[in-house]
Amino acid sequence: MTRSGTNNHKKKITAAILLGSIALAITLFTTVADAAAPKIPHKPDISHPKGSSPWPDYGEKPKTNTPEVKAWVKSIDWSKVPKLPIRHTDSPGDPPECPEKEVPEKDCWWTCTGCFAPDDVFECPGKNEWGLTFDDGPEPGVTEHLFDLLKEKNLTATFFVTGMKSTKAPWLLQDTIDKGHHLASHTWSHSGLTTLTNEEIVAELKWTEKYIFDHTGYKVKYFRPPYGDIDNRVRAIARELGFKTVIWSTEWDTQDWQLAENTISSKQIVNIFNSALKTLPNRKKGVVTLQHDGDKKLVPMARTLLDMGMKKGMKPMSIAQCLNDKVGYNAVPALPAAPAPKKPTTPAPAPVPPASGVKQTGKAEPEVSTPTSPAAKDDKEEPISAPGVVKSTANPGKKSSASTVSAGLSVAGWTLAAVIASFVL
């Protein structure tokens, strides 16, 4: 073999060693990052009290004669709930029909008057802020594509999920949170709330809250009434249960849901959104839009509308972000606290006599009892101790991660050695 051939052979061997070492280093450091990332533990509790009902049936309004609903109803101060009429609908589950006679102003019935209550969320405080929301999910095979779209554009959104659809894809609830998005409630069965009794409204809201909590550890704070159907009776019940109402800004309903039903064209939706965009220069605050999850046709439409809005300087974000709500939930799971060693409760064992001719140094090490972490004993939700503050605790996996980091550094050293060898060779 010629000198040139020998050098080439050496270079190939060196390159192979170098590439292999780099690949191993990258793999190991990726493992280190995963091991070091704090995990939020939550043991799902999908059981029910003895003798109580199972989850409400899919596609049906929850029953109101169960122990859970009776307890939830009892927790409400009904003196704070105005006595307004139950609205009429020809088709149960659909929004109500507006009466021919004028609706009293005190009802603040959004469906028929467009009335917003002072604590309704229907716009973002900051100019050009865009409260990006998707209703009616989760839907396997669709919701994931929305996640991908939002990740591509580095955006977050609020997903208003229904309880009944969540039962078909509970893993998507945790995925929503894990991918940095905001979970909120869209009731259990997607019925017009003003057409329901007080007890039915409680059941719709609380069963959805319970299902999300039992599968994620997060207790939702925001809810959107299906069809925007709300009046002061519904609002008062929601407030008593700890929820904040979110509707959407006037003129910012995209009507995209009709695309799934083939009752509107993509061009018409674009025209609707363009009309809304023309109002931006006159707005002092941001907007909350209405878009939907649940059908594959809605994903490319979401991309189109996002591109249109962002081109005009709009800043999409979740409802929690636009309201500067640091937590966005009524309760969140806390990281487990690292257990602190207790002082020994028993005397230290007597030192072992030294062997003949051997000098003893130091003292015997007493046993240290370690308490069980409080989080491991109790699966109940942790209340938020202060607005915008999530309990911060040590990562119990830190010790093992440190040893992995040490191993990673060793591999990095070998990589550097391979680089040096390549120059020598």
TrEMBL record:
GO biological process, one term: fungal-type cell wall biogenesis
Ranges for region Disordered: 39-64, 337-404
InterPro entries tied to this protein: Glyco_hydro/deAcase_b/a-brl (IPR011330), NODB_dom (IPR002509), Polysacc_deacetylase_ArnD (IPR050248)
Pfam families for this protein: Polysacc_deac_1 (PF01522)
Composition skew (Polar residues), residue ranges: 392-404
Domain NodB homology: 128-317
Keywords attached to this entry: Hydrolase, Metal-binding
GO CC, any one term: membrane
Compositionally biased intervals (Pro residues): 337-354
GO molecular function, one term: chitin deacetylase activity
Record-given protein name: Chitin deacetylase
